[in-house]
Amino acid sequence: MMQSVEQQYAAKPAPQRNSTIDIAKGLMILLVVFAHNPLLLQYESELQRVIFSFPLALFFLVTGFFLKADAPMPAFVRSRASSLLKPFFVVLLALAVMKVGKQVLLPPEGESPLGLKYFAGILYGTGPTIDWTPLWFLPSLFVTSVFSLVVLKLIGKRPRIIVALAAALIVIGATVASHFWSGGLCTESAKAAAILPGLPWSLDLLPITASFMLIGYVLGPWARSFEFNALGFVLSLAAFIAMHVFFNETMDLNCRIYGNIFVSTIQAYAGSYLALSVSSLLGRVPVCRTLLTYIGTGTIFILLFHVYIENTSIRVLSAYLTNPYAIAALSFLAASLGPLVIMEIAKRSALLSAALLPRQPQRQRESRPVNDAAG
Fold first, then answer.
1. Which residues neighbour 126 within 8 Å (Cβ) at sequence distance 6 or greater?
2. Residue 78 in contact with residue 85, Cβ under 8 Å?
3. Interacting residues of 35 by C-beta distance below 8 A, sequence separation 6+
4. Strand partners, 252
5. Is the dihedral of CA 291, 293, 294, 298 positive or negative?
6. pLDDT at position 184, please?
7. Is 370 part of any domain?
8. Domain that holds residue 296
9. CA 161, chain centre distance (Å)
10. Domain count, the chain
11. Residue 374: inside a domain
């Protein structure tokens, strides 16, 4: 007797580690570092729009690839809090301590000391309310992961219903991003008007991010055994190029920008498929596979520290170099490798390990864990 789609899906094996997905994570975080380079923002705004159109979507998809609907909720929440919220608060509070120390030792003229507003901004947890903007992604990923697991526990392993719900969520989310937050949150006019900087922990983005994560869950069995397909690659490349050539759309979730719902969504999925395809090809080259997989394991550390290292590198290099492209290249290299050095130091320090690395049960420490976007 032929099985239903739900029965076939339920019969899929448990999540397994896939080097293609790890490589894709490495590529995507490098693209994020590249897109955040101030020199790129100044000279190559169109390239920035292309890059921004899909990496964040892929990170939410990747997390969905490894979601387990039968995961115990308390243990899941503790695990995600350890891997996402702990480094978020530790880094921002450490930064606050450094700022206070600097103000005490070198009191700046005309600058008021840190107050409750600064710490309230950390608790609020959106890009406009924290000093290191990219860290907004961590509480957003936490909220989206917990919400998606709750949905899966309520719906069960029913792909058709999950896809229908994800489609409804993306419509709701794109409408909110395009109209309720009209003009985005990163424009000068929005700042001058004192527009609410998103909802706490980017809850206003939840329909968009949860849509990608739930689709990722449905696509999980396929993605975990992803293989390069020439026809799929060509079609995705054609769709991705066409969307960017004929439409001037992108997404910037931090700024609450989500372009035309059809164009931006096609860009996100086509770009994600291209990233997996390229990663599958790179995985056949041992050096690329090893390097990018390692970079993928350091995604959280690169997210945490790349902007500070990149901006500092540009400031220092500008005193010695005049070629903006040389400065951009060297600062990109520093911002990509510096956080990995910090990760290796953290692994070897009991204090830093407890502060920045996720706490894992003994049985997980003895085996190699699945490395999703929260990994």
1. 136, 185, 197, 198, 199, 200, 201, 202, 254
2. no
3. 41, 48, 51, 52, 55
4. 257
5. positive
6. 65
7. no
8. 15-99+113-365
9. 26
10. 1
11. no
